[in-house]
Every structure is written in C-alpha cells, then in structure tokens.
Amino acid sequence: MTTIETAAGLARELKQKLSSRSATLAVIGMGYVGLPLAVAAHHAGFKVLGFDVDPTKVEAINAGKSPIKSLSSEKIAAMISTKRFRVTSDYADIGSVDAVMICVPTPLTEHRDPDMSFIERTGESISTHLKPGQLIVLESTTYPGTTTDVLRPILERSGLKTGSDYFLAYSPEREDPGNPNFETATIPRIVGADDDITADLAVTLYSQIVSRVMKVSGTATAEAVKLTENIFRSVNIALVNELKIIYGRMGIDIWEVIEGAKTKPFGFMAFYPGPGLGGHCIPIDPFYLSWKAREFNVATRFIELAGEINAMAPQYVIDELIGALSKRSRKSLNGSKILVAGLAYKKNVDDMRESPALRIIEMLEERGAEVSYYDPFIPAIPMTREHANLAGRKSIVWGKAALTPYDAVLITTDHDNVSYQDMVSWSKLVVDTRNATAAVATGREKIVAA
Predict the structure, then answer these.
(1) Right CATH number for 233-449 from 3.40.50.10490, 3.10.20.30, 3.40.50.720, 3.40.640.10?
(2) pLDDT (tens digit, 9 = 90+) per residue, 428-438?
(3) Which of 199, 213, 373, 449 is at a distance of 20 to 30 A from 365, taking alpha carbons?
(4) pTM of this structure
(5) Which long-range contacts (CB under 8 A, 24 or more apart) does 78-83 make?
(6) CB atoms < 10 A from the CB of 399, how many?
(7) What is the pLDDT of residue 1?
(8) Contact, 377 vs 352, CB < 8 A?
C-alpha cells in the first residue's frame, strides 16, 4: 500500500469518527481559550479530555469548579457528571484520543521576541505519544510559519510524517471573554492546512463544534488571519488614543466625537481610547509579525508606531492624574492616596492578562503614591510573570467609608456592576479613562477625563 493510500485510509476512518461525533478530542490548556472550547466540543456530543500543567486547576475542574467566572461551576460540574469530560496532566493519555487542539500561551520575551516555549514543550509531550491517524490542530496565536517550522519538526521526532501518518492544521482561537453576544460555538472559525486531506479533516472537526468554518489555503495564511485581526484593532485603538490627546487639548470630548461618528452607517467603525492595551492578544500579537517581517527585510512602521502610541497611554493617564491633583487639590502625587478602580483588562471579566492597570499601579508607586485597588471580579492579585511584586494584594471592600480617604480614584476598567454615581459622591476626585462616569448626574465637577 502506498503512502497516499495509507493516508487516505487513516483520514477516512478519522473523518467518520469526527462526522459521527464518536471521536475523543483532547484540548491542551484549560484557560480562557481551551476551557470554553472544551465546553463547546462537549456540548456538540464529543468525549473531551482536557490537559493542563497546573495541578490545582486540574483538581478544581475535575471537582466541578470553574476557574473562569464567565463559565459557571454548575456547567463544569454537569459536564463532569456525564463522564464525557475530565482533565489531566498526564500526556500519556494523548494516545487515547483522535484529535488534539493546542491552546497554550504565546507570550513575548523581555526583548519582545516570540516565546515559543509553551508550544515547543507541548509538541514534545505530544510527540512521545503521537499515534497514526491523529489530527493535531494548533490554536495559539503566533507568527506565520510556526505550525510548519516549529511544531511540525517536533511532532515528527515521533517517526511519524505529517500528511501521511498523522495530520497537522492551524485554526486560530477567536475568544472574546465576557462578550454576551458571542460564545465559542457561534464564532466562525478559520482553518488552514498544507494538504487537502488534512484541510478536509480540520473543516469536518470544527464544523461539528462551531456555526461556520472557512478554509484558507494553508497554515501560514490562517496564522496571518489571526494576526491581521488583532493588528487592525491595535492600530485603530492607537489612533483614538492619539485623537483623545489632540481633542483633549482643544477642549473636545473624544467620547462625544466617537458617538457622533458612529451614526454614519458606512465607512466608520467605533474604537475607544483607554489607559493602555490589555488582554493576551492585542498588546502582543502585532510584535509577532514585526519580528517575522525582519526575516524578510520588511519594516513594519505602522505596527511599531501603533505600539509606541499605545505603550504611552499609561504615562498620559498618570500625567493627567498629576495635573488634576495639583489643580483640584493642590497636592502632589508623591504621598497621595490613590485608588485604582479596575484591574481586569476589560469590563465584566476576571481576566487581567497584560492589564495596563498593573503597570499603572507600579508607575504610581514609583512616584511615591500610596496605591490600593478595587475590582469586584478580582479579589486578590494572582502571581504574574511581569508583576510578581503585586501578587497577593487584595481589593478594598466597596463602601463610602472605604473610598472617602483617597485623594483620587483612577478608573481603569469600567465594570457594569459598579455604581459610578456613588463613587463620585464618595470621592474627592475621579479621573476617568473609560467614560464610565458618563451617566453620573451629580458631582460632575469632581470628574476629570484622561
């Protein structure tokens, strides 16, 4: 039997399992991407095996406790009770599944180079247990070429060859934590593979889980799609952050400008300014393309400029706070008591990855301020790689007595479950980076936009 015939036979068998949803799926990484994917796959009828290197998380999920606020523990417990879902740290179990979806972090190094260590370690763990006929799909956001140049050689250390013995594809995650209008199953998927057989298998897999699947010509194209989505957002956020400063100097409210502009039913898409970029994607992904472009001697001036503008946003916020303290209270930042309102990188989630609030706290303390924080979604700051010195700090308890002593409250996240009218009433000064106080009726003289 030829290699082509062998591959076709393995593919037919796997496609039948995927189509009938009798296949067992593995999802590696039980975070903000992997766990919702596991939920969607389980809901579609698949048996799902989750993997995570954190034993505490593994134990919690198997006990029916969700590590993510946007997914209820009741839902996780119900999944566990079906016996079609469990989580493990033992990669030997990879040998028992039909398809593997990799959802691990892809951060930057301190020199802003791509950190492939999570993908590499995951690939090494899979390769030890890889078996013929399996479909491996990378979902982590990364630069074009990662699937074929980084992951594929590691997997082929198993002795199995891509496209003949096993199948390798790329499908970028598109999670938006806290978005009530979309969930994993309703967000269209892009899939790319470097041969037709694998592409067909990847389309078959995701078609069982999500509402719509679009196939592109290869893994590098699919990788580029994800980067393009996030670079688009980064550049446009940089634009409104710059406009905020320009219009602010003119006495024009950027938020009112955006509300006016978005009444145009074509040719305009609303983006909003803030205290800096947060989340795992937008602050990081554009630099993946910048790094890869250097290999081709191409300058990414637009991307780099957007990164510079967005990186300056926290300093602008602090400068506005300093100015407001001086003008309104005749106080300097040094020695002032500041409450940072909101640690999550966006509203109504407990996700603080790359949150600009963490950097702002550090910058305030470097300038002599005494800083506390309030966030109803984050009762204590967990350990993070870049802000380890903040780990363990706890949110203040909400109330008039708690807010009154602060010289200023700096709003960095606009959670919906916070009474901004009470915040303004109880505070001496409120510096608002999110337009959270737009509906506040009384005490507006205390509010400064930043």
Answers:
(1) 3.40.50.720
(2) 999 999 999 99
(3) 449
(4) 0.92
(5) 79/38, 79/39, 79/42, 79/48, 82/42
(6) 10
(7) 54
(8) no
Alpha-carbon distance 282 to 4, whole Å?
41
User: Whose structure tokens read 């068998």?
Assistant: 13
Give me the sheet containing 447-449, strands edge to edge.
370-374, 337-341, 408-411, 430-432, 447-449
**Residue 54 in tokens:** 């954190």
Residue 34 in this model has a pLDDT that exceeds 60: yes
Task: Please state, in angstroms and rounded to a whole number, the distance separating the CA atoms of residues 42 and 199.
Answer: 22
pLDDT in tens, 190-234: 999 999 999 999 999 999 999 999 999 999 999 999 999 999 999
Q: Spot the catalytic one: 76, 281, 448, 450.
A: 281
- Residue 412, helix vs strand vs coil: coil
User: Structure tokens of 286?
Assistant: 């554009």
Across 210-231, b (16+ Cβ under 10 Å) vs e yields beebebbebbbebbbbbbebbb
**Which pLDDT score, from 0 to 100, does residue 329 have?**
85
The predicted-structure confidence for 84-143, as pLDDT tens digits, reads as follows 999 999 999 999 999 999 999 998 887 788 999 999 999 999 999 999 999 999 999 999
Contact 227, 286 (CB under 8 A): yes
Structural Rg of the chain based on CA atoms = 24
Contact assessment for residue 193 and residue 167, using Cβ atoms and an 8 Å cutoff: yes
Q: Is 103 a catalytic residue?
A: no
* Fold of the domain built from segment(s) 3-217: Rossmann fold (3.40.50)
Distance (Å, whole) CA 118 – CA 33: 15
